[in-house]
Every structure is written in C-alpha cells, then in structure tokens.
Amino acid sequence: CVILDVQAACRVTTVTQELLKEGFHRDLLVKVELGEDAGGCAVAAQMRLPPGIYVDPYELATLQQHNLTKAVVFPGVIDVEAPEYVARDVLVLLFLEQEARCPRCFGAAVPVHARYHRPAQGTGGALVLLESPEVLLCCCHSHLSAECWEPAEVDTPCSSDSTSPCQWHRTKHRPAYEGSMLRVPVGLREHSSLVCALTLLTTGLCSGLILTAACKYGHFS
User: Fold this and answer.
1) Does residue 6 lie within any of the structural domains?
2) Which pathway or pathways does this protein act in (predicted)?
3) Does residue 27 sit within a domain?
4) Which end of the chain is more exposed for a tag (fewer CB within 10 A), N or C?
5) CA distance 46 to 106
6) Rounded CA gap, 126 and 158, in Å?
C-alpha cells in the first residue's frame, strides 16, 4: 500500500526525443513535461550517446557563444574523426528551456553526428540506439519531494554559465518510454575489391597529372 501511495503521489514525467534532419548530421530534440511545477529549478536531460554518434565540442562551443544551446559534454576532448568501432560513449547534459505557454514543459536541441561504421555483409546500414534521457532537476531555492526525487551523482553546475556546485536530483519512478533509432549508411564488404581498385586507379591518375604539370610548368635549378 505504501508503494502504491508513493507512485500515486509522484506524477509521471514524460520524455520524448526526436532526430531531426537526414544523413550523418542531425539535431537531437528533447522535450520534457514534468509531473509537478519546477518552481524555478533548472531542468536538464542527461543522455549517454553510444560510440556510433557524438557531439562536436567545437561546434557546441560556437553555439553556446551565440546562446543557441547550453550543454556540457563528458569527456571534454572527443576525437571527431574516430570511427564507431574505436570510439567511446559520450555523456551529454543538455540544459532545457521552459516553454512559454506551458510551465511544466521544457525542451532543447543539440546537434549530433553519426560516425563511420565497419563495412557490413549484405546490408547497407547500421542501427544506432539512443537510450531515453534521464530527467534531472537542480533546485537552489525550493524543496523537492523525497518520495519522488533522489540525489543524483552529477558533478556539474546548475547552468553552463556558472561554476558554482549544485545538487542535482533525478526522478525515482521513471516512465516507460522508448529510445530512438538512427540508421547509418555503411559500405558493403562485397564491394571492397572494386573500391580498392578504383581508389588505386584514381590515385595513380591524379599523381600522374600532378607530375606532368610539375614537369611542364615547373622551374628546376
């Protein structure tokens, strides 16, 4: 009975995420509707991106300079050229903005990029699963219900513009929502011989043209 009373008192927080645009370069849109009024609290979505997708920290820094998005990425140094099979997970804390007509509704978008995958046999695409974000609240001047929220181990301020420490909280009863799937085009293994042959032919042709131009127009002492 106690468990039922707690679940009834804690209103469900709903989370949706959507991948916008097409191709390797997308926008990840996250929307949250809290079960209770945030009361001036900072709201963020904590997302763990798998190795097949990443956030460019240099692009993110530029967007934050123009106040277009606010987020913190861990680790701070990311190899944007690494393929999927040697990359690591990326943890993103995306600060959400409150919607004008809905006090409990928050949302934000962050650009994400798909990594190159290994060539596959008989298929032209690989699937990347994005797990559902975790909703976090940081309240400096208000109190959250202990039955509905618990402290979270997040070592970052309440704002991307601040350096002051902050205690974040997460929902104890997470709603049942699904993650998003990203389909990434990959090469076919059966085409590897053709690709290698064309690459060598193109390289040889371009090298020959460069040498011909150098011999014809170059000045050698």
Assistant:
1) no
2) Glycolipid biosynthesis; glycosylphosphatidylinositol-anchor biosynthesis
3) yes
4) C
5) 14
6) 36
